[in-house]
Design goal:
alpha/beta, Rossmann fold, Methionyl-tRNA Fmet Formyltransferase, Chain A, domain 2, seven-stranded mixed β-sheet, seven-stranded antiparallel β-sheet, about 30% strand, Formyl_transferase-like_C_sf, methionyl-tRNA formyltransferase activity, EC 2.1.2.9, Formyl_transf_N, Formyl_trans_C
């Protein structure tokens, strides 16, 4: 089939590479300009560079809503558009243009975790598995019929980076497998159960600020979800920002006020956590590694030279 590819960052790069390695003919690529956004500088393999290396025409757009782009798409005469990690809305006149429609590839197990940063949100929420879904695009974001979907388990110590590497390897088989079904003439696919749908926003600085009223189990997953190269979770100690680089759920149960720097346990320093910490029934978050405001990274037991005081959400 004649394919136009819309994509960005490493997800788009892997999709384009899979298409170039397949029997399909990539006739045009549309991608976003480079960005300085913290999350868009991560996994930033260039779709444009890969296309140009293979002699495929490239258009750079923030949004696909101009007449010039529409005319170039018509000239390309695609059987299908394939999109992965396209960051803005694709209007109906674009996604409905190809003879076989538009296939969107999304790194979640739809209908859950539509929208942005699905791997990070899924890890924070304790999902047992994550995956990649190829679905037909319609008027509602990430809501079209599912053509192919594959899952991988989330391990007890997995970080968001681990999940990225697990799922990025699914892009090629999911995409090319879905295109095989479409090329064979199949048009009926699995409808999403919209009662199970969830839709998430982009991550921001507010989303990595630690709230000590969260249970320690949730905070431990948040720390793993915001592992390198993502911006680390943080709190404030004596008015200065302190990044939490690694932590585990404490063995013991600790009572008191959320955020209290309480007790050395093993290689960590336990912080009291949970909205009902006063009951003494909660585990704490045992911080094991931190980074100071001036960039020094050290063991938490080295940083916290004495117990007492609080880690706070704001200075």
């Amino acid at each position: 089939m004649r394919v136009v590819m819309f994509g960005y960052q490493t997800w788009g790069h892997r999709t384009l590479q899979a298409l170039l390695d397949s029997e399909h003919d990539v006739v045009l690529v549309v991608t976003h300009p480079k960005s300085e956004h913290a999350y868009e500088k991560i996994w930033s393999d260039s779709v444009a560079d890969l296309a140009e290396e293979h002699g495929v025409p490239v258009l750079i757009r923030d949004r696909p809503d101009d007449d010039e782009l529409f005319e170039r798409l018509k000239e390309a005469d695609p059987d299908i558009i394939v999109a992965n990690n396209w960051r803005t809305w694709i209007p109906p006149r674009i996604f409905g243009l190809p003879r076989r429609g538009t296939l969107n590839v999304h790194d979640s197990l739809l209908p859950k975790y539509a929208g942005f940063s699905p791997l990070i949100w899924a890890l924070i929420n304790g999902e047992p598995e994550v995956g990649v879904t190829a679905h037909m695009m319609n008027d509602e974001l990430d809501a079209g019929d599912i053509v192919r979907q594959e899952a991988v388990p989330v391990g007890p110590t997995d970080t968001a980076t681990d999940l990225f590497h697990k799922t990025v390897g699914l892009i090629a088989p999911v995409t090319i497998g879905a295109l095989g079904l479409i090329a064979s003439g199949q048009t009926e696919f699995t409808k999403q159960d919209r009662s199970q749908a969830s839709f998430f926003h982009k991550r921001s600085i507010e989303d990595i600020r630690i709230d000590w009223t969260w249970p320690a189990e949730d905070l431990e997953r948040l720390v793993r979800a915001q592992s390198e190269p993502y911006p680390s979770t943080y709190a404030f100690h004596k008015g200065k920002r302190l990044e939490i680089l690694a932590a585990v759920v404490s063995q013991g149960r600790y009572g008191g006020t959320p955020g209290r720097i309480f007790y050395r346990e093993g290689d960590g320093v336990v912080i009291v956590a949970g909205a009902d910490a006063r009951t003494g029934r909660n585990h704490g978050l045992a911080i094991t590694r931190v980074r100071t405001e001036d960039g020094h990274e050290m063991a938490a037991t080295e940083y916290f030279t004495s117990m007492g005081g609080y880690l706070t959400s704001r200075p």
